[in-house]
Design goal:
Blueprint (H helix, E strand, L loop, with lengths): L2 H16 L11 E2 L8 E7 L2 H9 L7 E7 L6 E5 L2 E5 L1 H4 L2 E3 L1
Antiparallel strand pairs: 1-6, 2-3, 2-6, 3-4, 4-5
Length: 100
């Protein structure tokens, strides 16, 4: 079995296991990266399948509230409060989390 097929099978199993929804960015959906300091939002879905698995392990779950705590002086990384703790993310990672 080739590596591409193995990765595809693994991806399909993980997607079905978590029941996640992955969206390609369309329309007015807002991401965590677009929040201003002090703003809050509810996690809706993810746009990147691989980053989302890591975020899920860190407690960023659909339906959880996230709050933008602060950003570094140049804007990257950012710090969000989720599931009762502060989590630092790169803007690229934060942009994969869409909000309701």
């Amino acid at each position: 079995m080739t590596l591409a097929i193995k990765l595809d099978l693994l991806t399909n199993v993980k997607s079905r296991t978590f029941g996640l929804i992955f969206h390609k960015k369309q329309g007015p959906m807002r991401s965590v990266a677009e929040l201003r300091v002090g703003e809050k939002g509810i996690v809706n879905s993810f746009t990147d399948e691989y980053v989302s698995l890591r975020l899920l392990e860190m407690g960023v779950l659909p339906g959880n509230e996230v709050e933008m705590k602060f950003a570094a002086p140049l804007g990257d990384p950012v710090c969000i409060r989720v599931s009762g703790y502060d989590l630092s993310l790169r803007l690229e990672e934060a942009s994969t989390i869409t909000l309701c």
